[in-house]
C-alpha cells in the first residue's frame, strides 16, 4: 500500500483549547509526514496530551480545526476515525478477566457492526497484530499476568488490529525499564505508520523520531529534525535545565544530551556566599 500524499492524513491547523478557563493549547498546528514518527516534547502541562486527544477526536478544539484527509474530523464520522486512527494511552488496565487475544480483538470493534459475528478478516487482522508485536506465543495468557512492557505491547497490538494509518501514543514508555523502552520504540518505528508520540526522554526522542515538535505553555516553540531542534538554548528555555548537546557525527546519527543540572539550582549556588561561580 502506498503512503497517502503529504496533503492528506491527520492534521491540526491552529487549534486552541481551554479547560476550566485556562488556555491549554494556543494556535498549535501539526502536520505529521506520512510514514514517519513525530515526537511531541515539552514539560508537564505544556499541552501534549491535550493535542493528542484533539487529534484522536476525543475532544474538540475551541478554535482551529483537526482534519482527516482534508475533511474536518467531526464530519468524518466516529466510525471512520476509529478505523483510521488508533490511540495508545500511557497505561491501560481492566478488572475484567481478559486474555491477550481478547484485548487485541477489541481493536476490531470499529470494523464490526453491533452483534455481528467475527469474520475471517477480523481473525486475520488479530493474528497479524499479535505476530507484528511478537505476542503470538502469549495470546492465551491472562492480561493480569503480564509485565508492564508486555502490556504496552498488547495495547499496540490492539491498535494494530484496527488496521490504522495513524497511530497516536501518549508517553508509552512511562514506568518501563530501559530495555523495554528501547524494545517498544524499536517496534513503533518498524511499523512505518504515521505516528505521533508524546515523550519525556529527550535522548529517546532524538534516537527514534524523524521530527520533533516542542510545546511550551501550549504553544509550539520548535519544529524540525532532532539535530535542528535539540539545542542547549532550547533545553534551557523550555525545561530550565543546563545541558551539553553533542553534535551527530553522520547524517543518520542523532544528537546526544548530557544534563548538567537545573538552572534554578545553579543560580542559587552562584548567588550563595562562597558558592560555585563557574
Q: Trace the largest sheet across and list its strands.
A: 6-7-8-3-9-10
Strand content: 25-35%
What can be said about the biggest beta sheet? 6 strands, mixed
Q: Count every beta strand, where a strand is a DSSP E run of 2 or more residues.
A: 12
Give the ordered list of helices and strands: EEEHEEHHEHHHEHEHEEHHEEH
Structural features, described:
- This protein has 278 residues and is an alpha/beta fold.
- It has helices at residues 48-56, 73-76, 78-84, 100-105, 120-132, 148-161, 178-191, 202-208, 226-229, 232-239, 263-271, and strands spanning 10-19, 22-30, 37-41, 63-68, 71-72, 85-88, 166-170, 194-198, 211-216, 219-224, 241-246, 256-262.
- 34% of the residues lie in helices and 26% in strands.
- It has a six-stranded mixed β-sheet, sandwiched between helices. Strands 2-1-4-5 form a four-stranded antiparallel β-sheet. A two-stranded antiparallel sheet has the order 11-12.
- The longest helix has 14 residues, at 148-161.
- The protein is globular, with a radius of gyration of 20 Å.
Amino acid at each position: 500500500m502506498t503512503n497517502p500524499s503529504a496533503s492528506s492524513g491527520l492534521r491540526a491547523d491552529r487549534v486552541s483549547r481551554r479547560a476550566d478557563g485556562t488556555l491549554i493549547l494556543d494556535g498549535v498546528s501539526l502536520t505529521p509526514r506520512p510514514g514517519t514518527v513525530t515526537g511531541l516534547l515539552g514539560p508537564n502541562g505544556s499541552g501534549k496530551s491535550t493535542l493528542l486527544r484533539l487529534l484522536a477526536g476525543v475532544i474538540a478544539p475551541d478554535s482551529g480545526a483537526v482534519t482527516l484527509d482534508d475533511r474536518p474530523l467531526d464530519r468524518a464520522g466516529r466510525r471512520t476515525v476509529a478505523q483510521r486512527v488508533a490511540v495508545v494511552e500511557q497505561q491501560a488496565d481492566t478488572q475484567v478477566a481478559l486474555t491477550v487475544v481478547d484485548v487485541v480483538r477489541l481493536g476490531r470493534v470499529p470494523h464490526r457492526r453491533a452483534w455481528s459475528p467475527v469474520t475471517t478478516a477480523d481473525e486475520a487482522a488479530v493474528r497479524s497484530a499479535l505476530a507484528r508485536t511478537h505476542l503470538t506465543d502469549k495470546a492465551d495468557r491472562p492480561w493480569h499476568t503480564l509485565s508492564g512492557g508486555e502490556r504496552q505491547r498488547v495495547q499496540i497490538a490492539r491498535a494494530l488490529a484496527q488496521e490504522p494509518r495513524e497511530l497516536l501514543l501518549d508517553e508509552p514508555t512511562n514506568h518501563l525499564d530501559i530495555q523495554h523502552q528501547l524494545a517498544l520504540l524499536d517496534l513503533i518505528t518498524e511499523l512505518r505508520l504515521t505516528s505521533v508520540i508524546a515523550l519525556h526522554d529527550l535522548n529517546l526522542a532524538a534516537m527514534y523520531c524523524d521530527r520533533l515538535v516542542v510545546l511550551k505553555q501550549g504553544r509550539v516553540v520548535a519544529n524540525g529534525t532532532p539535530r535542528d531542534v535539540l539545542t542547549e538554548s532550547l533545553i534551557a528555555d523550555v525545561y530550565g535545565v543546563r545541558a551539553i548537546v553533542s553534535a551527530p557525527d553522520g547524517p543518520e546519527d542523532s544528537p546526544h544530551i548530557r544534563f548538567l543540572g537545573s538552572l534554578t539550582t545553579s543560580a542559587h549556588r552562584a548567588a550563595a556566599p562562597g558558592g560555585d561561580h563557574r
